[in-house]
TrEMBL record, chain A:
This is ABC transporter permease. It comes from Sneathiella sedimenti. PROSITE patterns: ABC_TM1. Keywords: Cell membrane, Membrane, Transmembrane, Transmembrane helix, Transport. Pfam families: BPD_transp_1. InterPro entries: MetI-like (IPR000515), MetI-like_sf (IPR035906). It is found in: Cell membrane. Residues 89-296 form the ABC transmembrane type-1 domain.
UniProtKB/TrEMBL annotation, chain B:
It holds the Pfam family ABC_tran. It comes from Sneathiella sedimenti. Keywords: ATP-binding, Nucleotide-binding, Transport. The keyword Lyase does not apply. It comes from the Bacteria. This is ABC transporter ATP-binding protein. GO terms for molecular function: ATP binding. Residues 7-237 form the ABC transporter domain. PROSITE patterns: ABC_TRANSPORTER_1, ABC_TRANSPORTER_2.
Length: 309, 370
């Protein structure tokens, strides 16, 4: 009864045409584009790796062998755990975490400045300058970073001319280029949620805190950051999820010895041709990311509804 | 016994580019005084307040608090506390944390802060509300929390920027009494900014009336109301009927003003204009609605005028009678309701009289816009 009432209210409020469009569009988006493919991935991850003719045959049963493989490695291997894949997995999450912190540290002051200076032409130009690089293709941007950070790249050349170093630094091998590239790729996703929240912060609160003798550090710690928390967590969630799931930047900017977990997934799907294993690895990454984000939110007392703000 | 300190503005000018927000302000506010700046919006009163609180440095002149020049001293270093128009309570801090924020800044322990918060909550009659968030309080309660927060720092001077403007009428009137009481109790200097002359008159020891960056008059509420220094003050503070004309003759403190439509009217020359106003000068004569009365007969005199009644309205405490004046302006008379239904005089002629000493003559000048 209540549901029927809700549906009626919804159509009365939005009209039949717009109401049905919204409903169909949202359902299509959520069910067809998100839920169903993920479910089929999940299903895949529990199946055996079989040649196409045997699919659907008697051998096509459910198994957890791919998950087992991720944890324990191939049967009969030297080590009792799959050290290589688990190592890459842990390193990827750690690196994504690091990239998130880096972006937060870089973006918070910028977002604060943008949000608190009331509009004006200079601000609009600044925002535009932030957006324009994103008109360029992600892969091109990654290659540009490779050039900048390369052994005979801009930074090395400059430092050599200035006499700061005598031999070029291998930024690629040290993964500096990778972190810089990833951090740069998601800067906007960090700035805008924080900027949106800080823009609505009443200036008088900052002045009131200042009037009561608070230092800049304390004003931010006690007044601005608590207020901006929904924006900060929203930005951090996006940057963390996307960094952990990035593929192009690690492929192009990553050092020869460093592998991103997404690259392993890609290999299983592509060159490895083992879709079920790739699916299992992808599911593990997704679940791990969700668990990390949720526990971070709990740690910092952010409600899931706040993220949408 | 008073803890309050003097606040002096000495020849203060504040400019923003070419715009002069405050022009040559000279004010001496005595320690422990309740002092108001009264003026229409945009007259520079908030700018003055910001220069006292330290958010703004005057372009010229000196601000002294307790005799000490405040130049170069930031808001966090001044012995002032500011209550903002929108109160600016911290929404994510509990009430007690809000109140004791100034102690937190100084590094006071949590126990100390709790104790002080409880004392202040008792003072503002909100005991046991410390654990709430500001959003859980009513408008008047928030008001009191803002006052407690400002007083917690034990400032020598409390600055209030129209803090009552967001409240409804009844609460506003109540808070006036309460603010005045708190001020008497703590004994520090209060500087109050308002565009509401009722607030300024009821609470203040002294009032500065401002117009377009200029202080027109400083004096007690009584002085500002009864002996205005300029036509602006006369027309901005309270209601006033204005009659334009020329000074016809002067006798001591009294002047006879000949007006176009209402004949010759006698009134006292305002103190500031005494000795300066000369025969033949363009002048303005002001009579307050409550000073006007219905004359017992219609014989002409220098304190009488006859005009036709346009409309009347009943306000409860008073009847307002609006009559035809000069230059399209209506003359307003207020009669106290003594419990008898008034016979409407709409459309009839009335002869009014007033006590000439209660009307004021000033040199012609700018009036407050309606």
């Amino acid at each position: 009864m209540k549901a029927a009432q809700l549906i009626r209210d919804y159509f009365v409020k939005n009209g039949l045409g717009l109401g049905s469009f919204l409903l169909v569009a949202v359902l299509f988006w959520v069910v067809i584009l998100i839920v169903l493919p993920q479910l089929s991935m999940l299903d895949f991850s529990f199946r055996h790796h079989l040649p196409p003719p045997e699919m659907g045959g008697p051998k096509d049963t459910y198994t957890i062998e791919h998950y087992k493989y991720l944890v324990l490695g191939a049967p009969g291997a030297d080590t009792s755990y799959n050290v290589v894949d688990l190592g890459v997995f842990g390193r990827t999450l750690l690196a994504a975490f690091f990239v998130t912190i880096l972006d937060l540290v870089l973006c918070y002051p910028l977002a604060y400045y943008l949000g608190q200076s009331r509009g004006g032409g200079a601000i609009r130009i600044l925002v535009l300058l932030l957006i324009i690089p994103y008109w360029i293709n992600e892969i091109l941007r990654a290659f540009a970073f490779r050039i900048i950070f390369g052994e005979s790249g801009l930074i090395n050349e400059m430092m050599l001319t200035m006499g700061l170093i005598s031999d070029p630094v291998d930024f690629i091998r040290a993964n500096v280029a990778l972190y810089a590239g990833l951090g740069y790729a998601y800067i906007l996703l960090m700035i805008f949620p924080i900027y949106n929240v800080i823009e609505s912060l009443d200036r008088n609160q900052i002045e009131a805190a200042r009037d009561m003798g608070a230092s800049w550090w304390r004003i931010h710690w006690r007044v601005v950051i608590p207020y901006a928390k929904p924006g900060i967590s929203s930005g951090c969630t996006m940057v963390f999820m996307l960094s952990a799931g990035a593929l192009a930047a690690p492929q192009i900017l990553g050092g020869p010895s460093s592998l991103w977990f997404t690259q392993i997934i890609y290999q299983w799907f592509n060159t490895g041709g083992n879709w079920p294993r790739g699916a299992a690895f992808a599911v593990v990454l997704l679940v791990a990311c969700i668990i990390i984000v949720l526990s971070m939110m709990r740690l910092f007392k952010v409600k899931i509804g706040d993220i949408g703000k | 016994m008073t803890k309050g300190v003097d606040v002096d503005l000495e020849n203060v000018w504040i400019r923003f580019g070419n715009f002069v927000a405050v022009r040559e302000a000279n004010v001496n506010i005595k320690g422990g005084e309740f002092f108001s700046f009264l003026g229409p919006s945009g007259c520079g009163k908030t700018t003055i307040l910001r220069s006292v609180s330290g958010f703004l440095e005057p372009s010229d002149g000196k601000v002294r608090i307790g005799g000490k020049d405040m130049a170069g001293i930031g808001p966090n270093k001044r012995p002032t506390a500011l209550i903002f128009q929108n109160l600016a309570l911290f929404p994510l801090m509990k009430v007690w944390e809000n109140i004791t924020f100034s102690m937190e800044v100084k590094g006071a322990s949590k126990a100390e802060r709790r104790k002080r918060a409880d004392e202040l909550l008792d003072m503002i009659a909100l005991p046991d509300q410390g654990e709430k968030l500001p959003s859980e309080l009513s408008g008047g309660q928030k008001q009191r929390v803002a006052i407690a927060r400002a007083l917690c720092a034990e400032p020598d001077v409390l600055l209030l920027d129209e803090p009552l403007s967001a409240l409804d009428l009844k609460l506003r009137q109540h808070m006036r009494t309460e603010l005045r009481e708190i001020q008497q109790r703590v004994g520090i200097t209060f500087i109050y900014i308002t565009h509401d002359q009722g607030e300024a008159l009821t609470m203040s020891d002294n009032v500065a009336v401002m117009r377009a960056g200029v202080i027109d008059q400083i004096g007690s509420g009584h002085a500002v109301y009864n002996d205005p220094a300029t036509p602006f003050v006369a027309s901005f503070v309270g209601e006033n009927n204005v009659f334009r004309g020329k000074v016809k003759s002067i006798d001591g403190n009294m002047a006879l003003v000949s007006t176009n439509r209402t004949g010759e009217l006698l009134a006292r020359i305002a103190t500031t204009a005494q000795g300066k106003l000369k025969v033949g000068d363009p002048a303005m004569m002001f009579v307050r609605p409550e000073v006007l009365n219905i004359a017992p007969d219609t014989s002409p005199a220098v304190n009488r005028l006859t005009t036709s009644v346009l409309h009347e309205e009943f306000e409860g405490l008073i009847y307002n009678v609006f009559m035809e004046g000069s230059e399209g302006k209506e003359i307003k008379m207020s009669l106290v309701n003594v419990g008898k239904q008034r016979q409407s005089a709409e459309g009839n002629n009335l002869t009014l009289e007033y006590v000439p000493e209660q009307a004021v003559v000033l040199p012609a000048g700018e009036l407050a816009s309606e």
